[in-house]
């Protein structure tokens, strides 16, 4: 295989790693461009495993970026959410697996880890690299890598929640949720929401949105109905698989203006994550346009 063919074959896996590390598709694409340049500049004779070499480059570039990214997020206006991705959910098993390691909730949890813990956990638990491989990738001894994974795993297990895998039920609940929001039916809407439901809205200072999380079914229902009332009548509300979860995309004049992800546990909506920052809707718009 040629260099380009090898890179293209491994690209989806590399993008998945970079996206989980950084939380944005745009930054992940930048990392892959730089990785490709370094791949072309490296003599093939010096590379024992193209997959390990490329993953190492991706992780190290991501680690370089994370320091400045964290500083930017501390100055971010309102709640910060990862950039959503449209992911095909034709295979229910694949969708459940994606929701487990690609959901917005999981990506937010990864933000609480140190960059090294995040890299070690993703490489080992999500992408299946051994501790000896991690040692080379992260320039640490295998026992230190094992410790990083253990700390990350312990932290995530304390906070991680498993979402319903029944995609049909999730689609039905999403449809009912959409109708209740559109009709301003607060009772019906509140009845779908868990007692500890939280709504996050990410406008990034570019779009008017709540600057703090909305907590509780009554407040959340009123907020969601108020948001729905601002949607132009000609806008289209499309059910969409976002990061392996039930979601909605609001399309106005051919452009996605909102992406909404629903966390569903035991048949109830436990969280609603609304991404309205246009910079974070580029990947969704690209997918909608088929580019």
List the strand order in the largest sheet.
2-1-6-5-4-3
On the 0-100 scale, what is the average pLDDT? 90
Low-confidence stretches: none
Straight-line distance between termini: 26 Å
Query: What integer value in Å does the Rg equal?
Result: 20 Å
State the CATH superfamily name of the largest domain: PhyR, sigma-like (SL) domain
How would you classify the helix and strand content by structural class? alpha+beta
The CATH class label of the largest domain is Mainly Alpha
Tell me the quaternary state.
single chain
CATH architecture of the largest domain: Up-down Bundle
Strand content: 5-15%
Features:
291 residues, single chain, globular, Nuclear Transport Factor 2, Chain: A, six-stranded mixed β-sheet, 2 domains, 12 helices, alpha+beta, Butyryl-CoA Dehydrogenase, subunit A, domain 3
Structure in words:
This protein folds into two domains: 157 residues, PhyR, sigma-like (SL) domain (Butyryl-CoA Dehydrogenase, subunit A, domain 3, Up-down Bundle), CATH 1.20.140; 123 residues, Nuclear Transport Factor 2, Chain: A (Roll), CATH 3.10.450.50. It is 56% helix and 14% strand. The chain contains twelve helices and six strands. A hairpin with a 2-residue loop joins strand 5 and strand 6. The two termini are 26 Å apart. The mean pLDDT is 90.
